Amino acid sequence: MPYLRSATRSTIRFALAGTSLLALSLTAFAQDAAQSTTASDGTTTLETLTVTGGSGGVITADGYVGTSSATGAKTDTPFLQTPQSISSVTEQQLKDRNPQTLLDTVAYTPGARVGGYGFDPRFDSFTVRGFDVTYTGVFRDNLRQPGASSSLFKTEPYGLEGVSILRGPSSALYGASGAGGLFNLITKRPTEEPLHELQLQYGTDNRYQGQFDFSGPINETDPLYYRMTGLLRSSDTEQVSVPDDRAYIAPAFTWKPDEDTKLTILGEYSRTKTGGSAAYYNDPLTGKVTDIFAGNPDFNDSVQTQARVGYEFEHRLNDVFTFRQNMRVSTLNIDTDWAFAYGPNAVDPTLLDSSAGTFDERMTAITIDNQLEAKFDTGALDHTLLVGIDYTKLRFRSLNGYGYTPPLDTSNPTKGRPTDPIAFSERVVQDQWQLGTYLQDQIRYDAWTLTAGGRYDWVSTDTDTTTLATGAVDAVSQKDKAFSGRIGLTYETDFGLAPYISYSNAFSPNAGVNKETSQPFKPTESQQEEIGVKYLLPNSNTLITAALFNIDQKNSLYYEVVDLPTGPANIQVQRGKVRSRGFEIEANTSLDNGLSLVASYTYTDIKITEGPADTVGNSVSSVPRHMASLWADYTLPEDGPGAGLGFGAGVRFLGSSYGNDQNTMRNSSRALFDAAAHYDFAAIDKKYEGLRLQVNATNVFDRRDAVCSAGFCYRDQGRAVIGSLKYSW
Asked: Any idea where the TonB-dependent receptor-like beta-barrel domain is (predicted)?
């Protein structure tokens, strides 16, 4: 991505030092590996090796039940020893539910409020424990995945092998993260055993998709493994001029010269085409959302390209020390035209006046995380000590233009209205540097585990806003620094029960500019007290977790409809203080009888404690107090009459919520039902082994109720049915 400004000299020295260390280490390790695997006759023999550790947060799971990952502590830690609410979406859950978006992927996890903005394929926006995590809570392979304005990385669920979820403030290790927690998206990695998969899909709204996933050793002699995952999709959606087209390719390679060393390279490129606006018209006279598309089919293109490449390097130096270095460079470009009908025309009320605009945003992020882990004993105490330093460089550039498009004719709302190109009127360039250093010690004594950690962050943000017509530049510089910490205590009984208590906080700088004030956003800060219990049932592949929490946050980012000089716009604003209190319970199981199940219930009471006078003491909009979900999949016995056949069913309940922070409008409660059916053709004859037919349906009863957030109303996404034919060998 162009426009990447050079870092400071000290930053360059830091980055080069890490790169040099990696290069020297790889050279030495390669020489050692060659000596250890080459026999006297010149032939080379290799064993299939597995190196485990903290890189990426990879989940250890059995079916639907995740039991450990590196997300909760940056070291591979059992969930029972993690003093914070943690759960996972496993690979088997992804296969059974076949999610098409990140929101579909996390829809059955406790505390996650998806669908708050109704149907909108442009962004994966959602909240956890009442807090928006869209910009600060989505991580990729244990590294921050930043976002600003409309520049949000799109997630292709087919490229994931799981999602590891850590709820609550988590800056003690991760730096920039929000109060709701973090969702660690785990990229598919090379496998040691050969894997080959081809799949065709067809679904609602003329959805055509082909995808593949190949992995395994590159040859029989070298310790090299590969994975290549990709898809191509052409699809309409329920909204006119809002396609959902995507091309996606993700190569990955792993080099494991010995049992102590591993290097994995992860890449991705995707191009997604959708609409610049997906909103339905909100009638200002009635205050209700209509079925009229608020955009302009002739001025509604949005194309996003994104790419990333990075590596995860790990080397065990000896029985005590392990060094890791994870790095990623990500780029994103989104080019969009949009239109928005906002009110009746003064002369002809059957026409709706419409504003329009165009923007071109580019974002580049470089993230590097260096870790040194030490495992040792001091008397009766077992230590896992982690020390690290990480660095993130973000450059965001935005060109914006505003204007008008011909009025919308309500008698023919899907008719296009030719619109002249809109010139850019403003350029925003923002550079942000973040340097953080952290220390954590997991101290284990008998059945007790004490986890204590701290981190200090330095953040520098420079923002230049240029009015293109006059050339006037408004330059703002901002420096922030903060300490973040976490302390927690866990006790494991010999029958699988593990109560815990913890305190943590978070500090998160915000990229982007408040369009209402033309000032950069202040950092968001939060703190949490949590008490809970986890129960891994003996002799049963079942995990039950429950937690009580209290979170206080200030300088939160939210979307609100604000009157700008160019007309009303749904933009990000910062609120004063909010407090969230609640309870969560989750159960995951995969049994030998073919039944797998995930269930959860969440109670969330989130209040505005400081802000505009008409909102103080009110509930935050679009956050239900009660949410519950249940998904179950059952495969019939192999020796029975229905061998090869399986069924899945789920329900997602959302209690009522307020539609604005003034609490003057309400969203009704609703229950959305999902279903699935699948058949393995190997049950007919072994020659069909690997051939599987699957059908998934979301929102089976096609409920399209109104849902309002921050005073603007949307509609739930309607029913979608997708059939998949997969062949694997």
From this structure: 255-700
56 within a domain of the structure (yes/no)? no
Report the CATH number at residue 476.
2.40.170.20
Query: 632 in a domain, yes or no?
Result: yes
Helix (H, G, I), strand (E, B) or coil at 243: coil
What's the token pair of residue 478?
């901002």
Reading the block at residue 83, the tokens are 């003093």
Strand partners, 595: 634
Provide the domain count of the chain. Answer: 1
Q: Looking at the DSSP assignment, which residues form a beta bridge with residue 268?
A: 308
Are the beta carbons of 123 and 55 closer than 8 angstroms?
A: no
Is 22 in a helix, a strand, or coil?
helix
pLDDT tens for 36-76 read 333 433 333 333 333 334 566 789 999 999 999 999 999 99
Q: Tell me whether residue 49 is in a domain.
A: no
* Residue ranges making up the domain that contains 502: 9-40+66-728
Is-contact 496 538, C-beta < 8 A? yes
What residues have CB less than 8 Å from 659, skipping those under 6 apart? 621, 622, 665, 666, 667, 707, 708, 709, 711, 713
Q: How far apart are CA 527 and CA 501, in angstroms?
A: 14
- Measured between alpha carbons, how far is 462 from 448 in angstroms, rounded to an integer? 46
Determine contact, residues 133/126, Cβ cutoff 8 Å: yes
- Kind of pairing, strands 519-520 and 513-514? antiparallel
Do 69 and 55 touch, CB atoms closer than 8 A?
Answer: no
Q: What is the pTM of this model?
A: 0.89
pLDDT (mean) for 558-573? 72
- Residue 46 pLDDT: 32
442-447 mean pLDDT: 98
Q: Which residue has tokens 């004594």? A: 445
Neighbours of 612 (CB within 10 A): 12
92-97, Cβ contacts within 8 angstroms, sequence gap of 24 or more: 92/61, 92/63, 92/64, 92/590, 92/596, 93/64, 93/598, 93/631, 94/157, 94/160, 94/161, 94/162, 96/596, 96/633, 96/648, 96/676, 96/678, 97/631, 97/648, 97/650, 97/674, 97/676, 97/696
- If one counts every other C-beta atom within 10 angstroms of the C-beta of residue 190, the result is 23
- Contact between 194 and 215 under an 8 Å Cβ cutoff? The reply is yes
**For residue 442, which of 488, 483, 498, 484 has the smallest C-alpha distance?**
488
Tokens of 433: 């540097």
* CA–CA distance, 222 with 71 (Å, rounded to integer): 31
Among residues 487, 383, 534, the alpha carbon closest in space to that of 445 is found at 383
Residue type, 499: P
Look at residue 330 and tell me if it is in a domain. yes
